[in-house]
Design goal:
four-stranded mixed sheet, 4 strands, 40% helix
Amino acid sequence: MALVLLVLVLGVGCTSAVRVTRLDADTQLDLSGNWNDTDIAIVTGALIDSSLKSNWINQFRVRNGHNPVVVVGTILNRSSEHLDTAIIAKRFEMALINTGRVEMVADIGMRDQVREEREQQQYYASEESAVALGRELGADFLLQGAVRTVVDQVSGRTVRTYYVSAELIDIETSRK
């Protein structure tokens, strides 16, 4: 038994070193041809540009006297591969926040944690520091969407086309 353990320790100690190369964030790298960070940057850039070029923000501000409030819903993965669509949603959210023309509230997944903390403060924080209940900012729009793929193959060649949609839905009227 002691001999077996010694061999295993020696075998682990002889593995080759891993070489890590850091790249600039703007460097485009595509090893597999599958969905990657470059695709995410292209898609989110196009979605954000499209959203901000339309007049929905100004129209809302004229009608309501304040910036629209948006909550991020779900970006569904309807593609033929594993994609982390939360990255798309988060980049879209950050870009909207950075315009200063849109207010964002905690996304659906985070709200339960925020609400739990607020409730816990009612019991465990001092009266002076506990936040008030019932003061959440209601969202005017829900951001949701989907990623889909079409795969075309012939003679060992493959072309993957990604269709990414994002919609802002007026929560009160369900108008897109």
